Amino acid sequence: MITLYHTPLSINSRRVWVALIEKGLEFELKEINLTGDQFKPEFLALNPFHHIPVLVDGDHTIIESFAMLDYLEAKYPRPALMPTQPEAVVRVRMVQMVTLNEMLPATMPLTMKHLFGKDDPDAVKQAYEKAAVVFKFWAQQLGDDQFFGGPQLSLADVVSGTMAAWFPEMGLSLADYPTLAAWRQRLMERPAWQQTHVSQAALDDFKERMRSRMGGQ
């Protein structure tokens, strides 16, 4: 049995959760409360860096979500989430890494503002500008295809799409990028995204706890 140690609000966790569902695999979810569960000896035995997610499949324990995605694709290749054509493989990998290395850090000020109540106007302005660069790149890579890998869902869609799910909460709009807006809508309607959706009540509770912890109003 596959076990995913996760936190529902974590983008890193959700991308693996979505991949498991998209591949139709049977798995068990074990939620880790990040107020202390990650430092318990039993969890540290799985990941000494006390981060989530952690994927356990039989005798194999995998940390780092991108490694988990690659493992699942190699171990359970059907249905495939990675195209075979060289150009499509490169496109998938580029979108994955741009999401991780460019989009995620660029939008941190938006997360701090909209989720945690910490506003830095200059940083927020730069965040929107950097996000626009990523949107243009994504739109270029997507072209007229339904997904970044072509007609079929790919790991690039899993990685970028689990982040795109949070765009409304971050104040990000795809109105100027109709192909991306349609792409995001397709993803949000898929069962994997529906099943992993965080309820508004859970999100509001998380925001309140974080703002209280950080001294926000």
Automatic annotation (TrEMBL):
Transmembrane segments: none annotated. It holds the Pfam family GST_C. Residues 85-214 form the GST C-terminal domain. Residues 1-80 form the GST N-terminal domain. SUPFAM superfamilies: GST C-terminal domain-like, Thioredoxin-like. PROSITE patterns: GST_CTER (PS50405), GST_NTER (PS50404). This is Glutathione S-transferase family protein. It comes from Leptothoe spongobia TAU-MAC 1115.
